[in-house]
Amino acid sequence: MPIGHRCCLNHSIDAGHPLHGKTVYLPVMGEGGSEIFAAIFRRLGVEAHVTPPSSRRTVELGGKVTQGDECYPSKVVIGDLFQAIEQPGFVPEQAAFFLPTSEGPCRFGQYVPYLKKVLRDAGYGQIEVISPTDANSYGGRGAVTNIFTRMAWRGIVASDSIHRLLLKTRPYEIQEGSADRVYQESLEDLCETIESSCDNLDCQLCGLVESLARARNRFRALPARYDRTRPLIGVIGEIFCRLNTFSNEDLIRRLESYGAEASLSHVAEWVAYTSNEQERQLRTLGKTFSLEMLGAKVRDHIRQSDEHALLAPLEEDLRGYEEPKVEEIVKLAWPYLPANGVSGEMVLSVGLAAYHSKHGADGVIDISPFGCMNGTVSEAIYPRVSRDYGGIPVRSFYFDGTRSNLDRDMGVYLELARSYHKTKPYSRTYPECFTPTRDNENAPDRKPPRQVTRDSSGRILSALGEQATQE
Ligand code: SF4
Q1: Can you give the pTM of this predicted structure?
Q2: 421 Cβ closer than 6 Å to some ligand 1 atom
């Protein structure tokens, strides 16, 4: 059980605050993140709920109020928010929707104005939309905003970390479902820790570090058989689609069922990138020695010191799984992109493809919505990245809510990754748990991965599911 930290001040919003008496609804982006944000709102005295799980109804509702040429994530987000509107007890006058935004360079900057328009057209113009922006690197002013921003950053780092532990453990678990169960327990522990935290920043940090240490111990206690022959696939691409399991048809679980392990790019990396980008833009505007630059530097320093403290208990367990430094990603992307005028997801995607290659991954998968500008540009660059990094297989998968033949494509792709695994020029760093011990050597085998069938000439015909293979 988390330890409560109620010893100090507990700052909540006051009666004059625009959110007083409101209920905040948060659409799901990735696993865990929305629950953490809901906990932060509740900690500040605001009722908050995550929208109902995405379903066919999401696509139906999203499709009904959009035109069809919007990016797929906006359709899913709007569909999920309209699912919340359909919930019994929903009161539009008391509701607020939470949707972070970005100024560009693509259509992401239009999500919030578009959501407001859709709500107005549907007769729900009274619903407030709360939208932190990357223009100030998701910072803001005012006591409550400052508390929220700091908690949000810590919550993002913590939730990304337990998700990393999940992805690192699940492919090797011996009891099916055990890693998911432990992840859920750890997420609830984090949420309870946030809700019961106080305003004292050290006290708050201490509570989160303790919660992460408990998560680490739960994962360590899981029986698992780690295996260095399993290919590691870096999963990158458009932030919403790669994190949202509904949008990407649970691609990571499919990868795991075919015998791979995934290293997913999480949310913290985007926040760190926006901070780096803000400083770059200030330098371009000749504001290297300005108050704005000082503010940006201070925020960045605070973020890094929080991150360092939070990750300390996980250092050994996440060795080889560390969050890439944004400076390194940007540097790796530069040879492939024009030096000026390019920013956003494509810088991260191209830089991360190179990063995963250089750090010993066996393949890279880009997940993007169909028609995504960033995904299309990045896909055109990946063959060069692959050529420069020893022929690593880099593959883009696009999603738009229509069924694809993902299983077949995945099986074929994994065959390429397995071949590359045997000849790759870059080695991977493993944490201690991958070192064979008497215990895990004697552990029973997990389910076999799915298999690929070939014709007599060795050409891949199809990838079979476990049931078909057994038959
Ligand atoms: S990154 Fe792609 S999918 Fe996301 S808003 Fe931009 S263009 Fe649309």
Answers
A1: 0.87
A2: no
